[in-house]
Amino acid sequence: MMKKTNRILISCIAAAALASCAAGGSRGAGGEVTGVGGTSWAEPTPYGMVLVDRGSMKVGVAKDDSLWNLKANARGISVEGFWMDETEITNSKYKQFVFWVRDSIIRERLADPAYGGNEDFKIEEDREGNPVTPHLNWNKPIPWRNPNEDEQRAIESVYRTNPITGARELDGSQLNYRYEVYNHTEAARRRNRLDPRTREYNTDRPTPTDNPVISKDTAYIDENGEIHRMPITRALTGPYDFLNTYIVNVYPDTTAWVNDFENAYNEPYVRMYFSHGGYSDYPVVGVSWEQANAFANWRTDYLRRSLGREGVYVEPYRLPTEAEWEYAARAGIDENMYPWEGDLTMSDDRGCFYANFKPQEGNYVKDGHVITSRVGTYAPNDFGLYDMAGNVSEWTSTAFTESVGKLTSDLNPEYRYDAAVTDPYKMKRKIIRGGSWKDVAHNVRSDLRMWEYQNEQRSYIGFRCVRTQIGFAKGQKQNNKR
């Protein structure tokens, strides 16, 4: 009877220890290791995005093409799951960014003593009266109707009068967006650690004595309103050395319609494509790689503001890597040259086009459009993504070099190069994908790589965003019992 009681007692003690550990308690002096739990939250579907599950495929040209002088260069890669915009970013969505920048400038000026100094537009103290980092009060509405004299001057300061037509229009030259990006990749590199003892693990080598040299981007606006961007190169001093500052003018270049085409009457597109409501659902163009990155940063910040403290857990919006873009466009299928099955750009039976491109020399309208088309006009691919071929070419985050395919890993491949102002221009090339409304069928293939300079603004290049999924594999547990 005594032995049975002891066994029951020992059993109860063990169960209690396990329960305590499982609950995250640490009051016990010892016991079995059961692990520590963590909190997680279900990520809702981001608005206007579709989930591209993790997967693997062979990217690049699968076979030689003597007609176009293409050599087979396909290689296997794997990518983590991510959310992707189901359509290209439209004029309407990009205009929301432009107007947000406009409104932030107006609020800044409404709080400026030179325009009346209304302290309600800027928060410098918390509810208890403690100083906080000054920031704009977005809960205070701009007095668009019935403003007083100072408020009227602040509002009107971001507009200009067209000297030819006399029309009142937004002054795009003032719409500058300042943001900061922490370079996690460089900060994580072993060579950039502050503690020299953790930079070199090989004990046969001496501990490094010199601080690593880093380069970061910074920017400022001078008294004349000019943006100056410059790299700072110095010995590492702390984590802030990986925080890069950018100032980008966000207004699209509407004159791209004229500058991209010599001796063509495209003035109506210059006047109307971005401003007229009829083009709201068309893809935004005339946006550089730098402006697309600024939009993604603003979009992240805009979402996080609405989520409060939980916003810190949201992965940032960003441009897709080249590998992510191709995997998504080809729906993860090695045999697909296009976002659809087969190597034709229209259906055999009814002659319907699968995408918006230039079907014949000089004939832009055979597919039903002269320039861009409304996003989502054509059928989506198997992942539910629209216009992954044609309409507009799309920026990726990946830097271009002739040997980029040999430089990248086969796991989430990405080649990143943040070109400094002083770098040669050829180092400022970024990869674009998908082809556009002005391209022939061959150039809208999903397995082809093209590039453009990061500061160029073209009438045929747009973009869409992605966001890494917060998700985990649902593999089966292995049964270790024999």
Explained architecture:
- Among the domains are: 50-85 and 319-468, paralog of FGE (formylglycine-generating enzyme) (Alpha-Beta Complex); 176-245, no CATH class.
- It has 482 residues and is α+β, with helices and mostly antiparallel strands.
- Helix 2 (91-111) packs across helix 3.
- The protein is globular and about 70 Å long.
- The protein is built from nine helices and 17 strands.
- Strands 15-14-13-16 form a four-stranded mixed β-sheet.
- Helices cover 20% and strands 18% of the residues.
Q: Topology of this structure?
A:
Layout lengths: L1 H21 L26 E4 L2 E5 L15 E5 L2 E4 L5 H21 L10 E4 L5 E6 L12 H8 L2 E3 L6 E3 L5 E7 L1 H5 L24 E9 L5 E9 L7 E7 L6 H4 L7 H6 L16 H19 L14 H8 L63 E7 L4 H4 L21 E5 L16 E4 L7 E2 L3 E3 L14
Parallel strand pairs: 13-16
Antiparallel strand pairs: 1-4, 2-3, 4-17, 5-6, 7-8, 9-12, 10-11, 13-14, 14-15
Helix pairs in contact: 2-3
Please name the defining characteristics of this protein.
482 residues; alpha+beta; paralog of FGE (formylglycine-generating enzyme); 4-stranded mixed β-sheet; 9 helices; disordered N terminus
In a few lines, what is going on in this structure?
20% of the residues lie in helices and 18% in strands.
Structural class: alpha+beta
Question: How confident overall, as mean pLDDT?
Answer: 90
Shape, please? globular
Q: How many β-strands, per DSSP?
A: 17
CATH homologous superfamily grouping of the domain at 50-85 and 319-468: paralog of FGE (formylglycine-generating enzyme)
Strand order of the largest sheet: 15-14-13-16
Level-1 CATH class name of the domain at 50-85 and 319-468: Alpha Beta
